[in-house]
Amino acid sequence: MKALVALTLAATALTLCAPASAQFAKPEDAIKYRQSALFVMGQHFGRIGAMANGRAPFDAKVAQDNADIVAEMAKLPWAGFGAGTDKGAQTKALPDIWTEQAKFKDHATKLEAESVKLAAAAKTGNLDNLKTAFGATAASCKACHDSFRAK
Ligand code: ASC
User: pTM here?
Assistant: First the structure.
C-alpha cells in the first residue's frame, strides 16, 4: 500500500513537472499536431490572401471570419515544438528551432501579434487595411520559414 501511494505521488509529480511536449503521447503526435494547426491556419490565411491579392472578390464578412480563425490558430502550433519533437515523423522543422529557442519564440510571438492586428484590420471592413495587415502577417510567416523551415 505504501509503495502504491509512493508510486502514485511520483507519477503525479512527474505529470506536473512534465515539459509541454508531454501533452502528446509521442513525438509523432506533436509533429502531426503542429503541422495540422499550421495547415488549418494556412488555409484560412490563404482565403484572406486571395482577397488581398485580387484573386477573389472582397467580402468583409468572409475576411473577418477567416482572420479571427487565423488569430486563434496562431496560438496553437508552438506547443507542438516541445523538447524531443525534432524527429519522430516527417518534418521540415530545422534543428535550429531547439538550439535557438529565444529566436524561434520571437517569431511565434510576432506571428501572434500580427494575426491579432490582421483580425482588427479585417473588422474595419476596409480592403486597404486588410492588404496592409495581410502583408505584415505574411512577412512574419516567411521570416520564420526562412530561418527555421527546410526548403
Ligand atoms: C501563406 C502561407 C504561408 C505564408 C508564406 C508567406 O499564405 O501558407 O506559409 O503565406 O508563404 O510568405
Answer: 0.86
